[in-house]
Amino acid sequence: MAKFNESRAYGVEIEIRGFQIRRDGIQYPIGRNQIARWLNNIDGIDCQSRDYTHDTTSYWKVVTDATCGWEVVSPKLYGHDGLDQIRKVVNKLKAHGAVIDSRCGLHVHHDAADLTPNAFVSVGMIYQRLQSSIDNLFIKKERLSSPFCRPIRKGLLTHLKKYAAQGFTNRQNVSEAGYRYGRYSTVNYLSFLRHGSIELRQSHAT
Predict the structure, then answer these.
(1) Which terminus of the chain is less hemmed in, N or C, by CB atoms within 10 Å?
(2) Does the predicted model carry a pTM greater than 0.70?
């Protein structure tokens, strides 16, 4: 088993539809402020309710999401401590009746700032090569047809291979190539321009 990289930063976006909160047969709406208060009760978790933003923050945040309803976004995480935070947050959401469906995903950002050009490009090429195996191993069937995590298009792979063959030195060129094919791909290179990361979008919500 590969050793867990304790020094590489990562982060997650947890999408949820809403909550099943009923009292006396009445459905109660839950807003992002309440979600943030719940998560703030977790030892070691600092969470805030924010208007929709792509800013990287030093705390967990709850924002609206156009495709699902709500999105719980982590700060930069490291090692097993980060995994422990994710488990605590997910368990708290479950305990309060969080609802998910096939539109909801668990997106994972991996810090790519220190990757060599070839390693940066290889992420997409390897993922595309293993796409069918990944689909069969752990992706729910209804997630496979989602328009928000489409398989990597051949055009993007052509650009990636071209830059690799040229021994490219500017990762931004690869990220900008993604604009032609959209960010709603299993591997999103556009996130590098804003966050310095590569985003893996295919995993279904948990």
Answers:
(1) N
(2) yes
